[in-house]
Amino acid sequence: MADSTTQSITIDAAPERIMAVIADFPAYPEWAGAVQSVEVVAEGPGGRAAEVRFGLDAGVFKDTYTLAYDWAEDGLSVRWRLTKGQIQRAQQGSYVLEPSGVGTRVTYSLSVELSIPMIGMLRRKAEKIIIDTALKELKRRVEG
């Protein structure tokens, strides 16, 4: 898998509140603009989603894909990987939460590989846009 793109944002909330929003997959279509549908396919220990199917419509980029999740026991991070996709060949990502004096620093890392060839520079730019949008939408949802 290629190098990932990473970006951070500070959210004025406790890590538990942020992770609760991240873990509430059925609510994603309410606040994550490109997410059209979500289905929790399998649950893991503690009732957290272990596998989730997404329907995405981001204009020219439409896909249905399934991600497998690995939740850290300390509640401060979650990692995922693609298990099935239509136009994605691979995806790996993570959210890492770090409490700070002014809220919680949320770091999102993402690497996506499409089935169609894409120049590395364009892929990184697309990942940056996805991450930037996701972090802003997460902040708005948590703080709103």
Look at the structure and give the mean pLDDT. 90
Main beta sheet strand tally, sense and closure: 7 strands, antiparallel
**What global shape is seen?**
globular
Helix content: 25-40%
The total tally of domains equals: 1
What percentage of the residues does DSSP assign to strands (E)?
Answer: over 45%
The rounded distance between the terminal residues' Cα atoms is 36 Å
- H/E series: EHHEEEEEEH
Spatial strand sequence of the major β-sheet: 1-7-6-5-4-3-2
CATH architecture: 2-Layer Sandwich
Looking at the structure, the CATH topology is: Alpha-D-Glucose-1,6-Bisphosphate, Chain A, domain 4
Radius of gyration over C-alpha positions, nearest whole angstrom: 15 Å
Q: Tell me, what is the CATH class?
A: Alpha Beta
Number of helical segments with 4 or more residues: 3
Question: At the fourth CATH level, what is the homologous superfamily?
Answer: START domain
Structural class: alpha+beta
Q: Work out the number of β strands.
A: 7
Give the low-confidence spans: none
Description:
- The chain is α+β, with helices and mostly antiparallel strands and 144 residues long.
- The protein has one domain: START domain (Alpha-D-Glucose-1,6-Bisphosphate, Chain A, domain 4, 2-Layer Sandwich).
- It contains three helices and seven strands.
- Helix 1 crosses helix 3.
- The longest helix is centred in the C-terminal third of the chain and has 24 residues.
- It is globular and about 45 Å long.
